[in-house]
């Protein structure tokens, strides 16, 4: 049977665009791609990129004080949200255009339309067109999920925060994951009075206890009113704001409430069930190790599969899919030892096992140090950093590395190479320190702080 395309990709986010481009450019496939919203997906349009720009914007507040401590004579300035927002918006336009050009240069035919699955080889577009393809790749990503309490639609999500008309004076952020903690820091830095409710005992569940404790302490020190063991009980519009009663009985009125209570895969009305594609309990597309669904011609990558919700992982899943299907080289995406950064203030970078995970598996040594870094100590700021290595007693392999510090994301990218290679503690120690830096502590910690 002759198909319109060798590959049709549903979703123009990081994973879908990469798979489409590589299949066309490197494997000579005829590729089509449909995107119902803006090309670039969550990461470029409403996630990592604008978020990071907001992180940058929010960190300038401290720099005025720091600069004065270093001898600069300057006045505090005000932050002008509309000016920044306009600049951010034109930057996103530029990036979206780059994505479109990349696809065009690779001869991928794009459709600005919503696509739904009809059967194993057919998609239907919202324009009315029907398209056939030998292979279909679902890369539709995910979206923020509200908690499902009455009036939760009074709150906004991370999709909306980039489009606020004005910065709120006060804001409640609900959740304790990546998004909640990152935006608590951002909004605090931009001058909003931030309250954060997290239902559990400590934010950033699943990360190293000591590291997340350190992040939480410093978030509070920098002004975020963090309430753990606390959730929203009731909310309603009142006195020009949003009245919230917490599960601990506090009542407050906030200008804005933002829910960062997790994300859900974009499979609603996608036609998965009709086409025979199996969905999991959370609506995620069920795939095997090669990203193949129950329907042999249909694959899925990225957040829609709810494996690891990170842009670089979606990209690698897309590349592995192309290797497998178009290059005759069956390749499983590697989900082991993925380094990641949480752009909280201070940042956290992490790779490998937490101390808690590691000690449940085998006897370990923990090397850890916490100190005031030179740059901010000089400026009189109380910031502290944490550098931590979790080491196997038996093999000496560094099982986990956790950093809480400005630029921890940059540091963990490099430490991640060593950890991924299976470096031992002694190999870290053989590496000469770069002085004076924060990260030199990673190769100079001589004595374990504890064993477990
Ligand atoms: P997460 O799953 O990380 O966090 C969701 C948070 O909401 C958790 O603290 C959870 O609590 C809480 N929560 C869930 N349901 C409710 C509820 N009904 N009421 C109150 N609280 C609730 O999701 P995010 O939305 O923060 O991020 C989604 C994913 O996006 C992340 O997992 C990450 O992979 C990715 N991401 C990565 C970034 C990066 O790399 N820097 C940045 C942003 C996102 P509990 O812990 O108790 O379950």
Key phrases:
452 residues, FAD/NAD(P)-binding domain, Enolase-like, domain 1, 3 domains, binds NADPH dihydro-nicotinamide-adenine-dinucleotide phosphate
Describe this structure as you would to a colleague.
The chain is α/β, with parallel strands linked by helices. The protein has 3 domains: 5-143 and 264-326, FAD/NAD(P)-binding domain; 152-261, 3-Layer(bba) Sandwich (FAD/NAD(P)-binding domain); 340-451, Enolase-like, domain 1. It is 33% helix and 24% strand. It has helices spanning 14-27, 41-46, 48-69, 81-105, 158-161, 178-190, 209-221, 272-275, 311-326, 355-361, 374-378, 408-420, 425-430, and strands at residues 5-10, 31-34, 109-111, 115-119, 122-125, 130-138, 142-144, 170-174, 193-198, 225-228, 232-238, 241-246, 251-254, 256-259, 263-265, 298-300, 340-342, 348-352, 364-371, 385-392, 398-404, 450-451. Strands 1, 2, 3, 4, 5, 6 and 16 form a 7-stranded mixed sheet that branches. Strands 17-18-21-20-19-22 form a 6-stranded antiparallel sheet, sandwiched between helices. It has a 4-stranded parallel sheet with strand order 10-9-8-14, with helices on one face. The model has no long low-confidence stretch (mean pLDDT 97). It binds NADPH dihydro-nicotinamide-adenine-dinucleotide phosphate. NADPH dihydro-nicotinamide-adenine-dinucleotide phosphate (NDP) is lined by residues 147, 174-180, 182, 198-200, 205, 231, 260-263, 309-310, 340-343.
């Amino acid at each position: 049977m002759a198909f319109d395309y060798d590959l049709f990709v549903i979703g123009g986010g990081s994973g879908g665009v990469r798979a489409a481009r590589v299949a066309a450019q490197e494997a000579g496939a005829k590729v089509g791609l449909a995107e119902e919203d803006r090309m670039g997906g969550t990461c470029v349009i409403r996630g990592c990129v604008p978020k990071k720009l907001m992180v940058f914007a929010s960190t300038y507040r401290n720099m005025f004080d720091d600069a004065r401590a270093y001898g600069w004579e300057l006045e505090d300035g005000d932050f002008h949200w509309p000016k920044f927002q306009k600049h951010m918006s034109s930057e996103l336009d530029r990036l979206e255009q780059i994505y479109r050009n990349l696809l065009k240069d690779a001869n991928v035919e794009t459709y600005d339309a919503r696509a739904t699955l009809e059967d194993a080889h057919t998609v239907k577009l919202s324009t009315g067109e029907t398209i056939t393809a030998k292979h279909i790749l679902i890369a539709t990503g995910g979206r923020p999920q509200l908690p499902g309490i009455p009036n939760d639609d009074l709150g906004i999500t991370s999709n909306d925060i980039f489009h606020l008309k004005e910065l709120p004076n006060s804001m409640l952020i609900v959740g304790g994951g990546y998004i909640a903690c990152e935006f608590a820091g951002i909004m605090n830095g931009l001058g909003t009075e931030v309250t954060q409710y997290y239902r559990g005992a400590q934010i950033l569940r699943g990360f190293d206890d000591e590291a997340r404790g350190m992040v939480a302490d410093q978030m509070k020190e920098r002004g975020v009113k963090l309430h753990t063991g606390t959730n929203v009980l009731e909310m309603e519009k009142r006195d020009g704001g949003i009245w919230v009663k917490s599960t601990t009985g506090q009542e407050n009125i906030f200008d804005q409430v933002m829910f960062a209570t997790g994300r859900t895969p974009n499979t609603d009305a996608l036609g998965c069930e009709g086409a025979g594609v199996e969905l999991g309990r959370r609506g995620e597309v069920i795939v095997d190790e090669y990203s193949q669904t129950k329907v042999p011609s249909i694959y899925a990558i990225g957040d829609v599969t709810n494996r690891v919700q990170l842009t670089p992982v979606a990209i690698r899943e897309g590349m592995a899919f192309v290797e497998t299907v178009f290059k005759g080289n069956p390749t499983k995406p590697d989900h082991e030892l993925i380094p990641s950064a949480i752009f909280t203030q201070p940042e956290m970078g992490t790779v490998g096992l937490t101390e808690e995970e590691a000690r449940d598996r085998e006897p370990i040594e923990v090397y850890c140090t916490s100190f005031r870094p030179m740059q901010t100590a000089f400026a009189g700021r109380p910031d502290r950093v944490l550098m931590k290595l979790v080491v196997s007693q038996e093999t000496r392999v560094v099982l986990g590395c956790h950093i809480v510090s400005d630029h921890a994301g940059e540091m963990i990218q490099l430490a991640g190479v060593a950890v991924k290679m299976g470096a031992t503690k002694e190999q870290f120690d053989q590496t000469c320190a770069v002085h004076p830096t924060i990260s030199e502590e990673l190769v100079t910690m001589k004595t374990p702080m504890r064993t477990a």
